[in-house]
Amino acid sequence: MGQDSRPEHIKQVAEASLKRLKVEAIDLFYQHRVDTDVPIEDVAGAVQDLIREGKVKHFGLSEAGVQTIRRAHAVQSEYSLWWRAPEAEVLPTLEELRIGFVPCSPLGKGFLTGKINENTTFDRSDFRNIVPRFTPEARKANQALVDLLGEIAEQKKATPAQIALAWLLAQKPWIVPIPGTTKLERLEENIGSTAVELTSDDLREIESAASKITVQGARYPEELERRTGR
Question: pTM for this structure?
């Protein structure tokens, strides 16, 4: 899977997207992996040109490292109760620079919904088949985190997915998670998380319980993980 973040290619991709989408402006234009062959300043400059032209409204980066974030002022990255690495450096940097954060995979690629267990099988084309965190052994070990969400959900008359999203929303006011789904009922369920109120006591209870759980398995195969945090 190649990468090409040359400014001229960025503008070609934007023009093609505008044509396909039949819109006048792209709301959010992402570089989904940092291209180490192109200075991030050149990437940001190309997108800034598109913003000035009214073709793009906002710019984002996915899975970027702290130094790249400082140079580009934009970021998206995985963040959830079972992947909290952004708390160490990324979130403090974003708060310092006053940049919003868009957590992708906020439901742990579906695992935190409580609909997946060690016996679940995936379609042959499903990406999770190659993810170490989704081996049957890892799923069995990580079930404790889903059980925790289920307990809180029962108290709140919500679903585990709604608790996972409500927890994220409670972390910082500038965090906007983007759970993916192809089903209307799941979209409605996800939106319902905004109505779930987690008190300070609830958050402390979740934090205390989660701290005792060691999540098993890497979130990406090694080759894909090397493309993140750059």
Answer: 0.76
Give the list of residues 6+ apart from residue 67 with CB closer than 8 angstroms, or none.
none
Q: Looking at this protein, which amino acid is placed at residue 200?
A: S
Residue type, 185: E
C-alpha distances in Å from residue 230, one per residue of 31, 61, 177, 178, 218: 12, 11, 21, 22, 18
78: nearest Cα among 61, 92, 95: 61
Separation between Cα atoms, residue 47 and residue 50, nearest integer Å:
5
Place of tokens 């925790």: 148
Structure confidence by residue, pLDDT tens digits, 79-137: 999 999 999 988 998 899 888 888 989 999 999 999 999 999 999 999 999 999 999 99
What does the alpha-carbon distance between residue 94 and residue 172 come to, in Å, rounded to a whole number?
11
Residue among 21, 35, 75 at smallest CA distance from 10? 35
Q: Where are the domains of the chain?
A: 106-225
Distance, CA of 203 to chain centre: 20
**Cα(196)–Cα(188) distance, rounded to whole angstroms?**
13
In this structure, whether the domain defined by 106-225 belongs to CATH 3.90.1150.10 is answered with: no
Low-confidence ranges of the chain (pLDDT < 50): 1
pLDDT score recorded for residue 74: 62
The pLDDT of residue 229 is 59
